[in-house]
Amino acid sequence: MLGSIRYNLANLANFSGRDARQTFWYYVLFLYLIQMVAGMLVAIPMMVTMFSQMFAGIRTGADPDAMNGMMMEAITGPVAASMWLAMGLGAASLLAISASLVRRLHDSDLSGWWALVPGLAYLGYLAWLPRQIAAVEEALAKIGSSAKPPSELEMLQGQEWSMLLAYLPIVLLVIFGVRKSTPGPNRYGEAPVRF
User: Rounded to whole angstroms, how far apart are CA atoms 53 and 100?
Assistant: First the structure.
């Protein structure tokens, strides 16, 4: 696994040759774990802030609606910051996985240009994300200031395109990543080294 990660990090700008499935998926797992750790490092302080607001509300005897408003007000900034961080990590991941995906496509005897399909879908999602951040901030403000907060279904209305743009690249990455390797050499080179 470590050999696969080292290989891919050493070949971030190498769009020629072939990557075996195992090499590709170990690297994808590595990138996913980095995103998860970064997300947790952002989420933990946000949760601490939210719970400290909740405990402060309990100590002062605030009613549940007031406590809800205090908590939502406390996490609005950190939620937006975490979404901006996710956007930056997403862009970095897109750059980090591009060459490996092209080499993986080459291994299944497909042109590397097919990598543009999930790449452009993901860029569409990243371009849409600032609008989502504004919508989340607005929803959190509504929850905090309203006696009757909107339901989860009401909050998800209008998010269909965002969800499609978020999941479509993942589905395409899986489809391209699990394709069978071409046995032996193909037009993109010799069979890849497996780690």
Answer: 45
138-173: b (≥16 Cβ within 10 Å) or e: ebbeebbeeeebeeeeebeeeeeebeebbebbeebb
The token pair at 64 is: 């549940």
Contact 15, 103 (CB under 8 A): yes
Contact 142, 150 (CB under 8 A): yes
* pTM, 2 dp: 0.81
Q: How far apart (Å, rounded) are the C-alpha atoms in residues 33 and 36?
A: 5
| Alpha carbon distance 60, 66 (integer Å) | 11
Please, are residues 97 and 144 in contact by the beta-carbon 8 Å criterion? no
The pLDDT tens digits for 84-103 are 888 898 899 999 999 999 99
